[in-house]
UniProtKB/TrEMBL annotation:
<keyword id="KW-0472">Membrane</keyword>
<dbReference type="InterPro" id="IPR036259">
    <property type="entry name" value="MFS_trans_sf"/>
</dbReference>
<feature type="transmembrane region" description="Helical">
    <location>
        <begin position="358"/>
        <end position="385"/>
    </location>
</feature>
<keyword id="KW-0325">Glycoprotein</keyword>
<keyword id="KW-0813">Transport</keyword>
<feature type="transmembrane region" description="Helical">
    <location>
        <begin position="30"/>
        <end position="50"/>
    </location>
</feature>
<feature type="transmembrane region" description="Helical">
    <location>
        <begin position="70"/>
        <end position="89"/>
    </location>
</feature>
<dbReference type="GO" id="GO:0005886">
    <property type="term" value="C:plasma membrane"/>
</dbReference>
<dbReference type="Pfam" id="PF00083">
    <property type="entry name" value="Sugar_tr"/>
</dbReference>
<feature type="transmembrane region" description="Helical">
    <location>
        <begin position="101"/>
        <end position="120"/>
    </location>
</feature>
<feature type="transmembrane region" description="Helical">
    <location>
        <begin position="430"/>
        <end position="448"/>
    </location>
</feature>
<protein>
    <recommendedName>
        <fullName>Major facilitator superfamily (MFS) profile domain-containing protein</fullName>
    </recommendedName>
</protein>
<feature type="transmembrane region" description="Helical">
    <location>
        <begin position="267"/>
        <end position="290"/>
    </location>
</feature>
<feature type="domain" description="Major facilitator superfamily (MFS) profile">
    <location>
        <begin position="32"/>
        <end position="452"/>
    </location>
</feature>
<dbReference type="InterPro" id="IPR020846">
    <property type="entry name" value="MFS_dom"/>
</dbReference>
<dbReference type="GO" id="GO:0051119">
    <property type="term" value="F:sugar transmembrane transporter activity"/>
</dbReference>
<dbReference type="InterPro" id="IPR003663">
    <property type="entry name" value="Sugar/inositol_transpt"/>
</dbReference>
Length: 486
């Protein structure tokens, strides 16, 4: 037996040399991923809401909405989500990952009820602001929770489940929006908070957070639940404890500017930049409006539903293959697919200006393939990798910064989309987005590491260029390094 002493506490972890068997993939991890993903469904619903809702809102007799008001209804959610991203960092560190997610459920419902019952646009904006704060906080907590609870062999598959279920939220919103007005649709959004809360309540906190709070026995119980009743978890507990022993002191926001963390944070910020400036939220928020611009004979609401179905199906394709194909290969395919389809879409809009409207089937096809490419990699992988490559000491603060940055980019794209269309025409806007996607391909080739099948500790060691970590840490925690054959 080996006794692992943590440097900052008097507790110990007993590790048996024969207990280093790899834990088996368990149904408990699936339940954890589903519980978190139901929150992502609300995020997806919130993002898609403006596409069908603004059409009925502008024609409503119970509320008056100008074009400027409508642009703020769409843009306010990502703007306040950026603020939520800043708030979320301290929350996941001090309250815990699970408790932070649970605390978003009720405000989500309140925000949607405010929108549903509004008779003036200011109440709609207030509801969108509340939902936006929750979106920012939850989007940060999703990858952190799953990154710390799911074993490396299936972290890709289960880690992008929130994106897949989030796309179900988009599909539900687009499908229901064909038949429901903006108010009834908002009540449906409020109802989605209930299953999320019900699923999250029985889930455990992450073992890493428990250890950061010196709750070793709680960490062991949580990890045992996640890996299965009969799984051997001692080796994994030791790895987590070694990582936590190095952190020792609570991290501060200043730590994210440490030179050794620069590479990890830069990769995350780069992925977030190319994700948002690919134009995805312009497409999701204004799907109906885009199809109206094309002059296509295909019903714009039906087109939005078809787009939602493609978005949903394509993410499950990514879920099935990500742990086999790897992150980088899928990002390559995603970049090339989005570049080609956006360039074709831009060309279509240029041709439409020349009155060649007989090609009205092209925009639907292009957007379907574009969303297929986006959902395959550039949609889920930046969030997945945020939970993978950010070092443990700065994970909360850095995830907060990256999430806030993501939604700030989303706000810029969403708020300026129609202004961009007026300035450089729809063709120019989509050509611009396509050029950004092409640039993103080279960013992935040069900068993004492959994380498939690697533990969080292995990824951190590589990105921060740490060597002989377990030997160096053994002097801190007063243990001998593990035999190489373990």
């Amino acid at each position: 037996m080996k006794i692992l002493m943590r440097a900052d506490t008097h507790c110990s972890i007993i590790v048996g040399e024969s207990d280093y068997g790899k834990p088996k993939y368990t149904f408990s991890q699936v339940l954890a991923a589903i519980g978190v993903s139901l929150g992502s469904m609300i995020v997806g619903f919130s993002s898609a809401y403006t596409s069908p809702a603004l059409v009925t809102m502008k024609n409503s007799t119970t509320i008056s909405v100008s074009e400027e008001d409508a642009s703020w209804v769409g843009a306010l959610l990502p703007l306040t989500a950026a603020i939520g991203g800043i708030i979320g960092g301290p929350l996941v560190d001090y309250l815990g990952r699970r408790r932070t997610l649970i605390l978003t459920a009720i405000p989500f419902a309140i925000g949607w009820i405010l929108i549903a019952s509004a008779n003036i646009v200011q109440l709609v904006l207030a509801g969108r602001a509340i939902c936006g704060l929750c979106v920012g906080i939850a989007s940060l907590a999703f990858p952190v929770y799953l990154g710390e609870t799911i074993q490396p062999e299936v972290r890709g598959t289960l880690g992008i489940l929130p994106t897949a279920i989030g796309n179900i939220g988009i599909l539900i919103c687009n499908a229901a929006g064909k038949y429901l007005d903006w108010s009834t649709l908002a009540y449906l959004g409020a109802a989605l908070s209930v299953p999320f809360l019900v699923f999250m309540l029985p889930l455990p906190e992450t073992p890493r957070w428990y250890l950061s709070q010196s709750k070793t026995e709680d960490a062991r119980k949580a990890l045992q639940w996640l890996r299965g009743k009969h799984a051997k978890i001692d080796k994994e507990m030791q790895d987590i404890a070694l990582s936590d022993a190095e952190i020792q002191n609570q991290s501060s926001f200043r730590d994210i500017f440490d030179k050794k963390y620069l590479k990890s944070i830069s990769i995350c910020l780069g992925l977030m930049t190319f994700q948002q400036f690919s134009g995805i939220n312009a497409v999701i928020f204004y799907t109906v409006g885009i199809f109206k611009m094309t002059g296509s004979s295909v019903d714009e609401n039906l087109s939005a539903i078809i787009v939602g179905v493609v978005n949903f199906v394509s993410t499950f394709i990514a879920t099935a293959i990500i742990d086999r194909a790897g992150r980088k290969l899928l990002l390559y395919i995603s970049s090339v697919t989005m570049t080609i389809t956006l360039m074709i879409l831009g060309t279509f809009f240029y041709v439409v200006n020349l009155e060649a409207t007989s090609l009205g089937w092209i925009p639907l096809t292009c957007i379907m393939v574009y969303l297929l490419g986006f959902s395959l990699a550039f949609g889920p992988i930046p969030w997945l990798m945020m939970g993978e490559i950010l070092p443990a000491k700065i994970r909360g603060a850095a995830a907060s910064m990256c999430t806030s940055f993501n939604y700030l980019c989303s706000f810029i794209v969403t708020k300026t989309f129609y202004n961009l269309v007026k300035a450089i025409e729809p063709s120019g806007a989509f050509w611009l987005f396509g050029s950004i996607c092409f640039t993103g391909l080279f960013f992935v080739i040069i900068c993004v590491p492959e994380t498939r099948g690697k533990s969080l500790e292995q990824i951190e060691n590589k990105l921060t260029r740490r060597r002989n970590r377990s030997r160096r840490l053994s002097s801190i925690v007063n243990i001998k390094p593990l035999p190489s054959g373990c």
